[in-house]
Amino acid sequence: MPKMSRSKRPPPEGWELIAPTLEQLDQKLREAENEPHEGKRKCETLWPVFRIHHQKSRYIFNLYYKRKAISKELYDFCVKEGHADPNLIAKWRKPGYESLCCLACIQTRDSNHGTTCICRVPRSKLSEDTKFECVRCGCRGCGH
Hints:
Elements: H1 15-34, H2 47-66, H3 72-80, H4 86-92
Subcellular location: Nucleus
Organism: Salpingoeca rosetta (strain ATCC 50818 / BSB-021)
Main location: nucleus
């Protein structure tokens, strides 16, 4: 995730409309980071952080690309300040990656067999009794 840096320049017009939602998600992120880790697998401790990071990026993506509710200047400000992941948003704009959960799931170098994550396999290709979740981010299927 990108480093959160706060610039000294004032935010662009429209910031006051999205700031409460982003502050609420930042608060949820802090709570998830401070959550106790007892009884969880090592990989499970980061799953809530990945989900909230995805939620923040998706919120800004929807405002700019889908609903066209914010300006380019405000979108660039949010990306520069670290509220949204520009690499993840770039993937969402490509066909086949519209519901991608995280960038780690499409990196083939991190997998055992040189393929993408199991969550990228469409559910129609898996047997009905197969229950899985991604080891990296906890996703249960983003390759519909």
